[in-house]
Design goal:
This protein is an all-alpha fold. The chain has helices spanning 6-27, 33-40, 49-68, 80-96, 101-108, 114-137. The protein has six helices and no strands. The longest helix has 24 residues, at 114-137. The radius of gyration is 17 Å and the shape is globular. It starts with 5 loop residues before the first helix and ends in a 5-residue tail after the last helix.
Length: 142
């Protein structure tokens, strides 16, 4: 809990909610990032430029935060291999669940989608179980 930053966490959550609500209000679109990425480069869809701007904004916000933030850059205690395996598993879960955590948790729950509520409960349960296994049962394995 030494790195917990309640003010910036709250502000970040508000900005995520505001951006998702704005996208829904102004474009009628859901801010599911995996769906945006999978369809952003579809050359048949002439009206997908908004996806590229939204994704560019995500990347630009992260770059700007790292450039101007007083906080130290993130460091990882896991090996590169474990991070790659984790990324592949997240990608597989995103396809399996028909959407990513942002789409289901932030946007789906706000729309009272039973599918998204179920998916979010599943995501969180598996995440809690994974942390328990990797941090308590397999403590010394990288």
């Amino acid at each position: 809990m030494e790195n917990f930053t309640p003010h910036t966490s709250f502000l970040g959550g508000c900005l995520i909610g505001l951006s998702a609500a704005s996208l829904m209000y102004f474009n009628g679109k859901i801010a599911g990032i995996s769906g945006m990425i999978s369809s952003a480069f579809d050359i048949k869809d002439k009206g997908n430029h908004w996806r590229l701007f939204f994704l560019a904004g995500l990347i630009l916000a992260a770059v700007m935060f790292n450039l101007f933030s007083p906080y130290a850059p993130a460091s990882y205690s896991r090996s590169t291999l474990s991070l790659v395996i984790s990324g592949v598993l997240v990608g597989y879960g995103t396809r399996l669940g028909n959407g990513c955590t942002s789409g289901h948790a932030v946007c789906g729950i706000a729309r009272f989608s039973i599918r998204s509520i179920t998916a979010t409960i599943t995501f969180m349960s598996v995440a809690i179980l994974t942390v328990f296994i990797t941090h308590h049962l397999l403590r010394n394995i990288e």
